[in-house]
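Submission sheet (multi-component)
Chains listed below:
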Amino acid sequence: MIKQRFLAKHRIAFTLVAIFVCFFAGDRIISRQFRYLIEKSNFPLARVYTGREDSQMLVVGNSRALKSISIENMERDLTKTCANLGVNGLRAEMLHAMLRDHAKLNGHPEKLILEVSYLKNQWDDAAGAEFLVWSQFGLHTQSVLRARLPKQIIASQIANLRMYGSQQFFRTVSAKNASQQNEFSNRAIDPTALSAISALGDEQFSLDTKVVDDLDDLLDEWESAGVEVTLVLAPYLDVYRNKVTNLEGWIKHLEAGLQRAVIDASELINDQKLFSDHVHLNRQGRDMMTDYLVERMKTASSSD
Amino acid sequence: MFFNSLPFLVFLPVFLVCFFSTGGRLRLGVCLLGSYVFYGWWDVRFLSLIVVSTLIDFYIGGKLAVVENERLRKRLLLLSLVSNLGLLFTFKYFNFFIGSLIEATESVGIELDWPTVNIILPVGISFFTFQTLSYTIDVYRRRLNYEASLLKFAVFVAFFPQLVAGPIVRACDFLPQLSRDSRFTWRNFTIGCSQIVSGFFKKCVIADSLAPYVDVVFASTDTQSSPTVLLGILFYAFQIYCDFAGYSDIAIGLARVMGFHFLENFRRPYFASSFSDFWQRWHISLSSWLRDYLYIPLGGNRMGPRRTHINLMLTMLIGGLWHGAAWTFVGWGFLHGFYLIAQRLLFKIPSLMQIATSPHWPGRFSRFLSGVFVFLAVCVAWVFFRATSFENAIAIFDRLFEFDQFRLSGVQNKIIAAKGFALIIVLVFFEVLASQIRVKARLVISPTFMVVYFCTLLLGIAWLGNFDSAAFIYFQF
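Outcome: structure written.
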């Protein structure tokens, strides 16, 4: 009776406490379930960050890496297992952190193929926030996000669910198989899109020397661990390529900074039917690009 | 400052403590100061505008109360209309009309060299000018006593929860509430917080999740496939609803926490079974304002069908222009005017009316079909509302009907699309549930319901909420 009166009198306080407790309990329980889904997922980055990625070859870069290089063709022609870790909009700091975390969690692969166009883009908070979900697994990734997105890191520590709102997480739980590559259609670029690209102004690629130096250090570490590194620039649609006024100079500058050659495939494909848009190949174009890359890698191996 | 920003999270508790710790004139002073801080956060220069508008209408309201001469009263009302609408015209429409005039004259070979002015559009100007106009018009019509206290009137004009994006609160509803010192009650606090949290869920989770998809579709229409464009239009319909209704919920909830009762501004508009029903559910404060201060004074439906149609079209055109200084908004208003007129003409057909009003399955089925039709027609109008120009809107419809790529594989980002769909289903489910159970009553009497309600929404916001301080769409109006 006294207990009931006490509860009735303090009903509001108890309700507020119940909301508080249930919110945080719910947050932790649901986050734990989401983490379990990640640990079971076959999505490439889920495998990397949970220490289950043991492919002999890695393809890394932004969406151009994802769409330009076919892992099936690489595996067939080079007879080594391959994973494509290309991520839409991936920025340099994040990519380098991901590779360092890969080395720590999975060791080093035999070969690393790096599509270098990601180096021209500046840091982007939205693109970086996509990696919040991985920050709980990788120290280097977490360190970059702490420096770049401190508020989001703090928010995700208060409410763990904040880590699971990104496209990366949704791709992880929806990935039916190891590769995203069969998502991509064989659609050719639309004629109306072509005229829109023709109307674009000139563009210049930029290169941050700090980022290049960091990449140089990273590649030194990986090469000293026995990894064979291949740097490549995937094809651009000719109409767009001609707008980039400093492309040749950009590549030379990059090669000078890294003291390594870049396979310049930017002019490899001129058939517009092999592009899905001005910077991405379609499936047919991807197969052609992969065949070329495999040939170059075989030539480089045999000359070594 | 935005509701979904850190400064507001700091501002609100400080304000509420000061609000409930004071009473009488001091409390009104706190309200006014808090509202001016909130509004001045965007740009302190905006404050001069709201102060001028307040002083003009307070003075005119006072004069209207004492002046008996009808001619003089009309002149005072005209002064209020000219000054309020003049401010609105100067800041919002001047460049638009000059630019349109120059384009029109150039098309017939006449070159005009009239200057445009470099003016920032003050946030919420469309809302507070309509709000103050409602006061002077009601005082003129003798439906409302004039407000003798400048402080109270200033709070009515500048009250921060609804200042920048509504709802447009009537003086007859709000001024009497300002005269009472509301106490803090857990009932008001609970119901207010539930509306605030629900508003944040609509805005930060649903609207901001749909926005990236919509932005890409409308910005680069040429490169999109039909399914992508179709989804973009559908998503925009829900984005604008959740953005605006979300803001209204937060505003009404904040006011409720303080003990003020504002009328609802949205009532499940996409469940409307006719166009007139839609306008009784969508932005209710604006549509009722236009009805009471424009449509009815023009004659309403009392002067024959032809004049009724003209009045309807004029009201909707002005309603469209109110939203923004662009012909696309006028186009949007025109479409809604057309829909309302077409509906009136169709409802004159006796057999159609018989089916539509039948309580049996033909009636229910026809109401369902008409609901679907109304929703699709509203979505078509939204294309003009969202498009940056008529060319952009036409390009959208062009791409929509390019049936050569009508495959789901044409959807550019399936993850965002799937997430958008899931959120729309969640929204529809909650709206249907809310219509079946009395949420507010249950919140107050059932602690379990309260815990489940708040935790569900807060967890959803924690998981999917976007807090990049994305502005509410209606701030631009």
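Remark: Chain A has a mean pLDDT of 90.
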